[in-house]
Amino acid sequence: MSIEQHNVIDFARVDSQSGEVVLSITDHLDWNNSNEHLWQLQEKFNAYLRYIESGEILKKYPEAKNQL
Length: 68
Prior knowledge:
Structural class: alpha+beta
Oligomer: single chain
Radius of gyration: 13 Å
Number of helices: 2
Largest sheet: 2 strands, antiparallel
Number of strands: 2
């Protein structure tokens, strides 16, 4: 997984204590071109928001229903 793969959730897991779904982004890029880096992050964040807002996250992690 990579920050450059905008429509891929890099890592997701359910926290065993809280029951919350934890989503993580893998970012290996350096900051030499900060404008491009920020754009990549924005695109990745937008994909994660779509994953949550569309309800797709609940299809994979139905136990998170009460956490959203």
